[in-house]
Amino acid sequence: MNFRQLIVPLLVLVLGCTNDEVDQADKPTPFTLNQTLVDGQNSGFNYVGLGSQPVISLRFSTKLDAATLQASIRLEDAEGSPVAVTSNLTGGDSTVLISPTNPLPQLSAYTLNVDRSLLSRAGGSLQVPVQLSLKTAVDLADKFPRISDEALLELVQKQTFKYFWDFGHPVSGLARERNSSGDVVTTGGSGFGIMTIPVAVERKFITRSQALERMQRIVGFLKDQAATFHGAFPHWLNGNTGKVIAFSTKDDGADLVETSFLIQGLLTARQYFAEDNPAEAQLREDINHIWHAVEWDWFQKGGESVLYWHWSPQYQWEMNHPIAGWNESLITYVLAAASPTHPIGADAYHQGWARNGAMANGKYYYDVLLPLGEGNGGPLFFAHYSFLGLNPKGLKDRYADYFEQNTNHTRINRAYCLANPGGYAGYSGNSWGLTASDIPNGYTASSPNNDRGVIAPTAAIASMPYMPQASMQALRYYYYVLGDKLWGEYGFHDAFSIHELWFADSYLAIDQGPIIIMIENQRTGLLWKLFMSAPEVTDGLHRLDITSNPY
């Protein structure tokens, strides 16, 4: 057979094929993902509770081109920043093993992407891109060196005090509402901040002369510049000018409950700065001027047997919010009854606050009796805000023993977290406490009846007088175990959710203050002793038929 006889059949064969058949024969075959494993476990495309260096195994339907691994595989953190990884082929070159180059921090979220630029040896592309969600677990290793419990309590008080001292408003000296609020200062939170000043002096964080200078600035601003309405302060003020900053549309005037938190702090300071010298005498006189100016009885709205929370110069009584128990406002009625100039009668307490006994509960939750308030006890700040100065030990009336009330409220709150009916990750005997705090994309008063999966450190730590061992257990956990996420410039950040891997970057005055104060009340009873030593407080309690332990 000559050359011509050989080539003709070949030409016929080639020319007999269609163009489509030639193109298809030349086109590489796409490939797919066959299996995903992370640390040897298969959980689809979502993996939680991982260690710091997880090994991700992706098995594909064909052998892969090793040269395309680096460009096609990306690990990103929650902010979208790249995280270095190492990757190599195994399993006959059809499986990729991927692991982070450096250990991943605890409680962090990552996304692993593998795109279509990953090629097979034959040049085929990945048919469907791969995306995995990865979340690391709690790392139980200590993040800071261990110290004694007393040293840890001191450290927490000192660091948290910086919020009020270093971050106090430069003009007024008052406490900013939060670490991002600029000139917005909070009257109630400032009352809490004022109460931390005697602690700071006694603990030698600052000198007495430094404390006196700050108190003079605060009291001078409140007396001479801050807006008041019948002697009561608004919820928020401008720290430069003293003008009202509306808390809400109709809440642009007096807030009697926030005023009571402020007066609680001022009376505590008055009792502390008791030395016989002109400067401290003048401070006491100025505090009395502010205290005596509050027209508590005027907030009975024309003589009703109840106090009202708000009054606005524009909207008058339209907020229409009677202060009725049980909540954080016991201190409001005690101070209103204690006023030397504008006292209320006992009828407002019994009919308005106690609602003629209707604030009683008397039911059991998690085998714990709750004397007062809503089912499961409500947010824990009910047990904190009024009792920063009011000593609940021995405080009793016809409605409750208030130390029992607060202790049982705390026990129920913790028991609820341990039961964890919502199934939120991270609730435990180490991590518990539902109260008002920031939450992802908002703020709420968390409680067993409003559980958003968010824990606020202030809830357990400020419960130190009620459940000291459980509170100390939580404090250790927040500092040693979660400290790399939770501990910062002004102590513990406001709140966190293990369930959502969310940690607030905020600090709030009303949450920071009770941490310092209630730790100190458990350690020495200092703030209780000071506030309860005010003779007007004794008179007010007597007027309301509340018994208390003398100091």
From TrEMBL:
Source domain of life: Bacteria
Keyword Magnesium included in the entry's annotation: no
Signal sequence range: none
Cross-referenced InterPro entries: Glycoamylase-like_cons_dom, SbsA_Ig
Keyword Signal: yes
Domain SbsA Ig-like: 54-131
Protein's name in the database: Glycoamylase-like domain-containing protein
Protein species of origin: Dyadobacter jejuensis
